Amino acid sequence: MPPLIPIDDPADPRIAAYRDIREKDLTGREGRFIAEGEVVLRVLAESSRHYALSVLIDPKRAEKLAPILDALPEKTPVYAASGAVLDAIAGFHLHRGILALGERAEALSVDALLAAAPARAVVLSLHGIGNHDNMGGMFRNAAAFGVHAVLLDPGCCDPLYRKAIRVSVGAALHVPFAWWGAEEDPVAVLERHGFTPLALSPSGAETLAALVPPPRAAVMLGSEGPGLSAALMARAKPVRIPMAGRWDSLNVATTSGIVLHHLTQA
User: Fold this and answer.
1) Considering only CA atoms, which of 256, 90, 89, 86 is closest in space to residue 171?
2) What residue ranges in the chain does DSSP mark as E strands?
3) What domain range includes position 77?
4) End position of a domain, from candidates 103, 128, 152
5) What letter would DSSP give residue 106?
6) Mind listing the pLDDT tens digit for each residue in 110-127?
7) DSSP 223
8) What is residue 37's DSSP assignment?
9) Shortest CA distance to 72 belongs to which of 50, 48, 46?
10) Are residue 79 and residue 128 in the same domain, yes or no?
11) pLDDT (0 to 100) of residue 249
12) Three-state SS sequence of 135-196
């Protein structure tokens, strides 16, 4: 196991990137991100794309984490601070006692991801998803059902926010993603690469159960409430999940799980 570097002062400049992480989540980290918890740290240590710059743990966790810490690059420092010092650094009670500072992989392009997709593939195209819990949940579903890539419009929150990564149990570090350009036409690009755009909406003409999964499917999901824009709905294949009684919609992360299961298990 790499040697633990003791940290006794919350103001120690070596761990400045971890300070007040809740507030920093929303302001960006210059190409870096914070990973939290044992499972997420394991995914980061095994990642072929993202890179762990440092780790900060409660020394009580060291023995259990030894196999994960051994998988880190030799030059990655592992800092150790007591629970009280960790809480002072983070700005809140950190009951997991495990943090890591990661460096983002080079951004991927939508065209490159779609071009590299196999003959049978499913991608998620997300539009206006601003809730970190929903974003993390959808990445977790994407990983569970073998989605090739997640595509995000400029109105989406960052999948590498600390909370989104945590909710995804590290899937946000595993599933490739790319951002749609502000002027890009998602439907046209998807169709150019042979993907059938499926727009999920309570007003969809076809039910999910009746849908025969196309070889290449792009599941388009919008934010809860507004949903997808009328322009996207008009050009994609609208699909709905029937509801009982007066209910007409599900949580968007739940919707993604149902749809992805249907498309990938056929």
Assistant:
1) 256
2) 4-6, 32-36, 51-57, 78-80, 98-103, 121-127, 149-152, 177-179, 196-200, 206-207, 216-222, 237-240
3) 4-103
4) 103
5) P
6) 999 999 999 999 999 999
7) B
8) S
9) 46
10) no
11) 80
12) HHHHHHHHHHCCCCEEEECCCCCCCCCHHHHHHCCCHHHCCCEEECCCCCCHHHHHHHCCCE
